[in-house]
Amino acid sequence: MRASLIAASLLALAAAPASAKSTPAAVQEVVDLSKQAIGIRSVRGDGNETGKVAELFRDTLLKGGWSADDIEIVPVDDTAYLIATWPGSDPSLGPIVISAHMDVVEAKPEDWERDPFTAVVENGMLYGRGSSDTKFDAVQAMVATILLRQQGFKPKRSIVIAYSGDEETTMITSKMIAEKLRDAKLVLNVDGNSGVLDETTGKPAYWVWQGAEKTYGDFKLEVTNPGGHSSAPTDTNAIAQLSAALARIGAYRFTPEVNDITRDYFTKAADFEGDPLLAAAMRAFAKDPEDKAAIAVLRANPATIGSIGTTCVPTMIEGGHALNALPQRATGYVNCRIFPGHSKASIIAELKDVADEPALTIEEINPEYVTEADASPYDKTFVDAATKAIRASFGNVPIIASQSSGASDSMWYRALGVPSYGASGTFMKDSDGYAHGLNERVPITNIAKSIDYYHVLLTELASK
Length: 464
Description:
Keywords: Hydrolase, Metal-binding, Protease, Signal, Zinc. By secondary structure, the protein is α/β, with parallel strands linked by helices. 34% of the residues lie in helices and 22% in strands.
């Protein structure tokens, strides 16, 4: 039944007149495919079904006009990635890549109000794990591309849909895809909403394109002692030493800083901040990153603390081996989000100084899962195309550059010198941001406008 519904919807897309952009059939297809994708448990570990999401997307693309030879699903460990190419007329030109991921973070049904892997639509919102991060956006971009092809567009540059299978965990497939597509002109990363809706009116307030992100780093901190009987304590105690070091790190604040992207964001986004104190702090910090009053306000806000510099927080601890013995080992883990321009080695050195514990060792864990990458350059061709696309679909909303505090597939492209830009067509309220959390959701009221956005964006970029 699902296959027949997909086929019927895609036939309707094919019948759309060449002058059309979004269609009711395309809008419904986004909802239906998103619900199907959310219903597939694409979580790392036993029972990982990411490969089934890839198969669902492959079957959809085949019905939409792609050749089987132009679609590749590559199994990797317990996951898989998908690359689907719409060949352009000039193969010498670097392709335009649409990037997203098919995997999601774990979700325990007993903690949710609704089954996280049974998508439901309520009051204009699509609920389910992966709805906002990022199966809905992956589907929306894919259906928009299918519609563009069905309506007769002939790209000069190839358009490549590249969806990874472990962005939420190891990013092995993310790295592999970037290596394969290192000749790309640029990447449109649709992972997560780029548009912000006004909290009161629900209308589009502004749209941000992401041009940089902080470097992700996990670090293992450890103290070891000879141990002994608990009745004969010594001057050294691994647990006490580690605890004191972690407390110092937890209380430490890295030097605040700005770059061109964050300065642009703070300056422009302040105009849409409902809290006058926060808005004033954003403007003040953009002018002077040493403004102590502004820094205090921004650090107190979870939405802005990650944008003003490097952050490192203790996240896990373990230690000791018996209730009646002195600990021989105590281990802690610190997660850092490093402001662009700083190496992980320099952050380790700074943590070592802050910890102020000679017996402490610090090492990075799983360094192969992350990479350091500079910001993408300001590309006028991209910015002009994105501005034209957003204005055509959502009106005269401000366009703002941004830097992400999290990690995404973009870093692998940027590390290879391929410009990658966060450029989703989804708009949502900040208060609805439940990615990775309970009752994850995304609004579905603007699908038609988002499809129109992709229509203009891809037409502009793939024609040059």
